[in-house]
Amino acid sequence: MIGMTPLTPQEVVDRFRNTFGEGVEGTLIRERAEGMKKRPNYNLWITLRQELLKPAIQTLIDISFPHLAVISGVDIEDQIELVYTFSLYFGVKHGEYLVNLKIRVPKSDPRVPTISDLMPSAVFTEREKQEMLGIEVVGIPDPRRLFLPDDFPPGVYPWRKDEKGIPPSMIKNLWEAKRPKDRPAPPVPEKPEAPVCSVECHDPSEAPNETETEVKKE
Amino acid sequence: MKPTPSFNRSLWVYHLNSGSCNGCEIEIVAALAPRYDPERFGVKLVGSPRHADALLVTGPVPNKMKERVLRIMEQTPDPKVVICVGTCGESGGVYYDSYSLAGPIDDVIPVDIYVSGCPPRPEAILHGVVKAIEKLEQLQGGAT
Amino acid sequence: MSGEAPVKKSSYTIPIGPIHPALKEPVMFTFQMNGEVVESVDFAPGQTHRGIEWMGMRRNPVQIVHLTDRICGICGVTHSICFARAVEQIMEIQVPERADYIRTIIAEMERIQSHLLWAGVAAHELGFDSLFYLAWRVREEAMDVIELITGNRVNYGIIQVGGVRRDIVEEQYPRIQQCLTYYRELMDKLLHVFLHDRTITMRCRDHGILTYEDAMKLCVVGPTARASGVKKDVRIDYPYCAYGDLSIDIVTPNLLMGEVRGDVYDRIVVRVLEIGQSIDIIQQCLDNIPSGPIIWEEKIAKLLLACKKAKGEAIGRHEAPRGEALHYVRMEGEEAPYAWKVKASSYSNLISWPVILRGEQIADIPIIVASIDPCLSCTDRVAVVNKEQQAILSKEELHRLSVEKTRRLQHD
């Protein structure tokens, strides 16, 4: 990296476009500036065809060895979108870009190749995607669960929004557990859904109640 | 009630984290640090439940931890006092609707003293410990 | 249990855990031992998995900010900043400049208290309890100022989507200044007790080494990466909040030591130097803080309405005391976010454990495990499984082994 002029965000995107042509389905460069001097930081979003994931990561490695932050996943109707977040050019003052590679896999065949041969640190986050989204990472060196307990019901994936998500029967409303059942009725009827902060805040006079009253005005 | 000679107002506490966010943990340790220094009264954190007179339990008890909490409760010799530190152990707190919790703590083990707050201040935790000493003295004295 | 014990031919397994409080990453360790030496390490987090992301997908952003405060009690402001920044990017709103500065000040205050907390825990793991108490005593100064600014000691609740909820008023400046002066005067002493102490040098030098190559390959973050010479610090690489305005540079151990070894000692060096850096950052912020509003929209109902209209996805990052934290948020014009992924800093760092523990002794496990700062306040019990028979080695026992090693080295 030393001695090389870093590419501009546009050049990084162009590199992907030139390498993969039609395989790149969409690109977006987002610039954001904060503070008083408004120095910009850049987030790059590159949507790829599913099979181009590994060549794309290889392209990134050829530019400069990236840092894999995390793989995020979203359940979108009949597809699962995976976002591979890398940071490029770290160590260059104010010169780092966040590169997000997005692919979509169909739920009917939710398989992605492992990237742990290119980025050894990916195993951890790939294991999490397997248990949370029900995808299969082909060739993962360690396929065990990560966060969920071993007796977690099979076929339930917490981040799924379809019938494979968390069933209502698994939710335990802790605040209800020790609530006396024979309390006198409140003077005003209880709202169907309790505001979240009535249980948790140190200071009940702060924001949560404000939310409640304000919403009524609207 | 007169304190019994076996305790001599010196209380050993075992701290059990059952899925807490660490907020209560650092406040418990801060309560032991020199500013409050409860060790001058003999209050001390110990590394094994078998040495403890009181259990400080934090967190909303995830399913994975339920068995461990029960086991540690069994390992603590009688008479013992269980202090529940933090709101999430009492009612779930912010984690009130999670899918992976077995709590609140008093659904899993009997609790004697509740210290509310998210997290409670060190003073509040110490106050809970003082209450625990009173309770233990009662238990020792056989009073009901 | 001394180092001279005959080395057994067969290896045996030690599970450590599972009660381990690192927010999302509580860990159950399994060590393959050959005599006193660690052959390989495996770990299984998730003992305190609370399904935070899933809960977040059922709440609105203002409620989630309070939930993010409680992802980790030590990084009380980290996750809130990440989440708020992600939502702000989706909504395409600008945070008032003053709010950016207040966020920076409180984040650096948090770094001071977190590093001191870590320093105390590390000293405790070495059996150096006087230093543990010293670190925790001086930490209270930062806690007092945090309480003065935010109203809380832990889980500050100061961040709101679009800004901060409390201003730093004129009357508070002298107190913050007093705190900075206090730490500035203390820095020499801290450097002295942590870096020139014979015990610490003996126990930490050349133990738990993470080479530059491994650190790059394993994508570790924060002081763990910087101690191995990887220049990665979100505050400097990627300007956000007020960090883009400040003159700061990446802290690596060679600034003080002249070389990078990537061992436990280097991680102490980085953290102690970062306390100094944080003092400097807060000073710069206090000197340059602009006046003006502190939040994009004060009325929470209006804020929620704007959140509800937002569509898109974004990533919010922040350099936590332990390294980069990152939140991916996707909003689809509903009250609750459509997707939310939290990456805490330890999530990236835990993966280095197998590498840095390999070839070390049982007595060194506590300090090496603690050296990446995994919020290790109580890895509470260890069971030694020796073939069929099993003996429980408590945290206390493990700690005792560590203390004994210190004593042994002192007598050598």
- From the alpha carbons, calculate the radius of gyration of chain C and give it in angstroms: 22 Å
Q: In which range does the helix fraction of chain A lie?
A: 10-25%
CATH superfamily of chain C: Cytochrome-c3 Hydrogenase, chain B
Number of helices of chain C: 17
Give the biggest beta sheet of chain C.
Answer: 5 strands, antiparallel
What is the annotated CATH architecture of chain C?
Orthogonal Bundle
Total number of strands of chain A? 7
SSE order of chain A, as H and E? HEEHEEEEHEHH
N-to-C series of helices and strands of chain C: EEEHHHHHEEHHHHHHHHEEEHHHEEH
Task: Provide structural commentary.
The complex is a heterotrimer of chains A (218), B (144) and C (412). With 218 residues, chain A is of the alpha/beta class. Chain A has helices at 9-20, 53-63, 122-133, 197-200, 207-217; strands at residues 24-34, 39-48, 67-76, 79-88, 97-106, 111-113, 136-138. In chain A, strand 4 and strand 5 form a beta hairpin. Chain A is globular, with a radius of gyration of 23 Å. Residues 197-218 of chain A have low confidence and may be disordered. Chain B is α/β, with parallel strands linked by helices. In chain B, helix 1 links the parallel strand 1 and strand 2. Chain B has a five-stranded parallel sheet, with helices on both faces. Chain B has a single domain, classed as Rossmann fold (3-Layer(aba) Sandwich). Chain B has helices at 23-32, 63-75, 87-91, 105-108, 122-141; strands at 12-17, 44-46, 54-58, 81-85, 113-115. Chain B has five helices and five strands, in the order βαββαβααβα. Chain C has one domain: Cytochrome-c3 Hydrogenase, chain B (Orthogonal Bundle), CATH 1.10.645. Chain C is built from 17 helices and ten strands. In chain C, helix 4 runs antiparallel to helix 16 and helix 5 (129-150) runs antiparallel to helix 6 (173-195). Chain C is globular, with a radius of gyration of 22 Å. Chain C starts with 11 loop residues before the first strand and ends with a helix. Residues 19-25 and 376-392 of chain C have low confidence and may be disordered. The chains are: A alpha/beta (218), B alpha/beta (144), C alpha+beta (412). Chains A and C meet through strand 1, strand 2, strand 3, strand 4 and helix 3 of A and helix 2, helix 4, helix 8, helix 10 and helix 13 of C.
